[in-house]
Each structure stands twice: as C-alpha cells, then as structure tokens.
Amino acid sequence: MNQKLATLLKELEEFGKTNDATVTDRTRKMLNITRDTGEFLLLIARAIEARRILEIGTSNGYSTLWLAYAVQQLSGTVTTVERSQFKADMARANFERVSMTPWIQQHLGDATDFLKQQADNSFGLIFLDSDRQEYTGWWSDLQRILTLGGLMIVDNAVSHESEMKRFVDIVQLTPGYLTSLVPVGNGEFLVLKQPVGR
C-alpha cells in the first residue's frame, strides 16, 4: 500500500471516531467499518480475485478505499451506492486525493432501485453496510446479481444482531448458500453462493 493511501486511511479512522462522538445528527455520522474489517475485506477480495465488487453504503469512502485497493492489481472495479449527497461528495474528494477514482464507480441514489437495474450474475463480491431494515427486501435481487461462487459480506452482524436476525434467518433458509459469522470488527455475516445441492 502506498504511503498516500495509508495516511488517508489513518486520517479517516481518526476523523470517523471524532465526528461520530460529537455529531448528534445520525445522517452526518460516518459509521465507518473498523480497521480490522477493512483488512479482512482486502484479504477476502484478493483471495477470491473479485474483479467486480458492489458496496451498498459508501459513507465517506473509508471501506470503499479498502475494496478499491483490493481490486486495483486485478484491474477490477468497485461500484458503491450512497443516497446521501453530503457523504458521496466527501467520498469523491477522498478518492481523488489518493488517485483511486479509476477503480471506483459511484452511484448516488436509492439502493432498492439500483439493485433492480443490475444484470444477473454481475458481482463476485457484495458488501452491505447500509440500512439493515432494507436487507430482507433486497435479498431477491442480491441473490440474482451475485455470481455463482460469489460472496456477500454483511457488516454489524454482532453489534446489531437483533436488527439482522430476520435477514440472517431468511438467508440461512435459502437453498444454495453457505453462511458463517466471523467475529471481526462489528461482526461479519458471510454468505457464499453455491450450486443447489452442494
């Protein structure tokens, strides 16, 4: 990792902690992943050689930068969806600052509409870090757009276990998926799409 990116990631970690401790308006909180989650995303993305990644919930771009760094050597892309103009603008400035824009496609808008517009089997890795109440409604499209052998990672599976329970239950009852709860950061729920019957 080059020094510019490493420096920015450390800066965003400190900014996120300070900002979220002082800001009362939830829409202005960054709610970033933890550093060990970023390292985990990097490792997983590299291990499965994900070339097309979808992230729902950009915030200020902290997690996006980890994913973009992962796909950079594979000439891949990260498509990241954010509904807040304020956060999307902040993220764009961070991406430009470390010259990572060639590997990132930003989409401003509602994730529900975005998911419906995506082609089948279009993403090898999906990272969810957004409105947990929406996940159950997204499941049908998430299944459709995730490639066979693709992986979905969902943040906050431990820290917000009660909010995630219905979604986790539905996923685990769906044929063709292997799941695991990994105690990294705020808890990562991993979902592997495999052929039915395996």
Explain briefly what this protein structure is.
With 198 residues, this protein is α/β, with parallel strands linked by helices.
Show the helix and strand layout:
Blueprint: H1 3-22, H2 35-47, E1 52-56, H3 62-72, E2 77-82, H4 85-97, E3 104-108, H5 111-116, E4 123-128, H6 135-145, E5 146-154, H7 161-172, E6 177-182, E7 188-193
Parallel strand pairs: 1-2, 1-4, 2-3, 4-5
Antiparallel strand pairs: 5-7, 6-7
Helix pairs in contact: 2-3
Oligomer: single chain
Query: What is the overall silhouette?
Result: globular
| Count of folded domains | 1
Give me the Rg, rounded: 16 Å
Secondary-structure-derived class:
alpha/beta
Q: For the largest beta sheet, what order do the strands appear in spatially?
A: 3-2-1-4-5-7-6
> How many strands appear in the DSSP assignment?
7
* Arithmetic mean pLDDT: 95
The total count of helices amounts to 7
The fold-level CATH name is Rossmann fold
Strand content: 15-25%
Main sheet? 7 strands, mixed
At the first level of CATH, the class is Alpha Beta
CATH architecture assignment: 3-Layer(aba) Sandwich
User: How widely separated are the two ends?
Assistant: 38 Å
Structural notes for this entry:
With 198 residues, the protein is an alpha/beta fold. It has one domain (3-193): Vaccinia Virus protein VP39 (Rossmann fold), CATH 3.40.50. The chain is 43% helix and 22% strand. It contains seven helices and seven strands. Strands 3-2-1-4-5-7-6 form a seven-stranded mixed beta sheet, with helices on both faces. A hairpin with a 5-residue loop joins strand 6 and strand 7. Helix 2 runs parallel beside helix 3 (62-72). The longest helix has 20 residues, at 3-22.
